[in-house]
Amino acid sequence: MRPEGCYFPPLSDIICTWVMVPMSRGKKRKKRLLKILFLLMCPVLLVLMLFFTPIFTVKNIRVEGAGYYSEEEIRLASGIALGENPYRQLRLSPEAILGLRLLDAETAIEALPRIKEARVFVIFPNEVGIRVAERQPSVYLPYLGSYLTVDAEGYVLEVCQGSPPEGLKEVRGIDFSSYSVGKQLETSDIGHVRLADNIVGAIRESDENSDFQLWPVVDWIDVVDEDTAMMSFDNRVVVRFDPTDRLQYTIDFAKQIFFTKIGTSERGRLEFIKGQNPSFIPD
């Protein structure tokens, strides 16, 4: 006899409910597993598409920053050809994968003597970009009858035989044991090369807005040590100065004295001593 006001469901309803609960939980678990498998398969399918689908092969190669080298020379140096799949050339490293960079191609381009830095990257979906920074010639060094063109960091860009390279000045006072084209000089005087480049830059800046042009009369630059350098003007006047002390002022003042105070046939030394006025000592 049931108590009044109470309701007990039939036994069949209870059994049905008991059976359906685990079945619905099982379906949810299966759906969850299918979602996980799908998420895991997506990267695999994407990789397969990138590696083997023809639409991702290289259709164009862009080159930026080339000046000394032609764009075609840069493309050939990279080793990348139209119709290849660039995604297969990606290294398994974070910088390569995250930036879609072709590191082997970068190394190949940087082997060119005048290339300072190269960046090669995939432009999705089927282009490759190449961006280069070239080394700029600064001065030349005489060596056993030849002339080494170097940049501001002492990297040898080329070797000339017979006559020095045009548009550059000779630098003395750089002792080195050996050299290789495209590599930095084997020397402890790399700092002297940088000082020489600073002097060259100051001369060019001085001539930019001036009626007097110093560059054509500079014969050579000699970096003696960290605080002493010399220059020859017109094979007549040797200027001695500190390349680390008010360099631009020194170059401007030396030019003014040479063109306005020293006669065209006079020879001697122009001395810049720290804390004193410059003095000309005739030969």
What keyword list fits this structure?
three-stranded mixed beta sheet, 6 helices, cell division, Rossmann fold, 12 strands, Cell division protein FtsQ, 283 residues, cell membrane, transmembrane, alpha/beta, transmembrane helix, six-stranded mixed beta sheet, Ubiquitin-like (UB roll)
Walkthrough of the structure:
The protein is of the alpha/beta class and 283 residues long. The chain folds into 2 domains: 55-134, membrane protein fhac (Ubiquitin-like (UB roll)); 139-282, Rossmann fold (3-Layer(aba) Sandwich), CATH 3.40.50. The chain has 6 helices and 12 strands. The strands form 3 sheets. A 6-stranded mixed β-sheet has the order 7-8-9-10-11-12, with helices on one face. Strands 1-3-2 form a 3-stranded mixed β-sheet, with helices on one face. Strands 4-5-6 form a 3-stranded antiparallel β-sheet. A hairpin with a 2-residue loop joins β4 (139-143) and β5 (146-150). α5 packs across α6 (247-260). InterPro entries: FtsQ_DivIB, POTRA, POTRA_FtsQ_type. This is Cell division protein FtsQ. The chain crosses the membrane at residues 33-52. Keywords: Cell cycle, Cell division, Cell membrane, Membrane, Transmembrane, Transmembrane helix.
